[in-house]
Every structure is written in C-alpha cells, then in structure tokens.
Amino acid sequence: MGVHRLSARVSYCIYTDPELARVGCNESDARRRGIPYHLLTHPMALVLRTRTLSETRGFMKMLIAADSDEILGFTPAALPARTAAVALSSSLSRAGIWS
Fold first, then answer.
1. What letter does residue 99 receive in the DSSP assignment?
2. How far apart are CA 23 and CA 4, in angstroms?
3. Closest CA to 92 of 1, 25, 27, 18
4. Does the pTM of the predicted model rise above 0.85?
5. 56 Rama class: left (phi>0) / alpha (psi -120 to 50) / beta
6. What is the pLDDT of residues 14-71, one digit of tens each?
7. Residue 52: how many CB atoms within 10 A of its CB?
8. Which helix (H) or strand (E) holds 19?
9. Cα–Cα distance, 92 to 8 (Å, whole number)
C-alpha cells in the first residue's frame, strides 16, 4: 500500500484523570480508510517512571502500518498524556513522516 500520509495536526487531549490524548489516527480511522495495521498496547504499569511517581494507571496504544512499519497514530491514556503526544508529534513532523 505504500506510505500513508496523515496529518499530525489532528490531535487532542482530554483532561480527565488520567488524561487521554491522541495524535494521528485510531483503529476506527484506519479501518475506515482501509489501511492494514498492527496495534501495540503497553500498560503504564510497565513504565518505570510511573512507578516512581506512584501513578501506574493507564496505557499507551500505537497504530503501525502493516506494510511499512510507519506510525499511523498514538493514544496515551496516562499522566501526563499530553506530553507524550506532543513529543511524538513533534519528532515525526521534524522527521518528515507526518506533514
């Protein structure tokens, strides 16, 4: 299928407890566009920094294109989700992966 161009500008953060943020697309978006993907899910309890802060609630999800390993989307539901989403969006935009 080749490279899937997605806008890094489509992002948001909901200030719940824990926060929920998203950059790029989610599973529904990828299915609707017919993009095959792999879904990686990582519980925050496995992130050592969350243990030092005693805030292990939440998860991170990353959508990866099945045919290119390109990151299609990222959804953290954790504290601080906005920081992770902004860092990933900025890095991918600078690398030219997202327009």
1. -
2. 14
3. 25
4. no
5. alpha
6. 888 888 888 888 899 889 989 999 999 999 999 888 888 888 899 999 999 999 878 8
7. 8
8. none
9. 8
Q: What secondary structure does DSSP assign to 20-84, as a single string?
A: EEEEE--HHHHHHHT--EEEEEEEGGGSHHHHHTT----EEEEEEETTT--EEEEEEESTTHHHH
Q: Give the full edge-to-edge strand order of the sheet including 59-65.
A: 11-14, 20-24, 71-77, 59-65, 37-43
C-alpha 78/C-alpha 98 separation (Å) is 23
Architecture, CATH, for domain 25-94: 2-Layer Sandwich (3.30)
Indicate the domain borders of the chain. Answer: 25-94
Place of tokens 């929920």: 20
| Closest by Cα among 33, 26, 13 to 81 | 13
10: amino acid identity, one letter: V
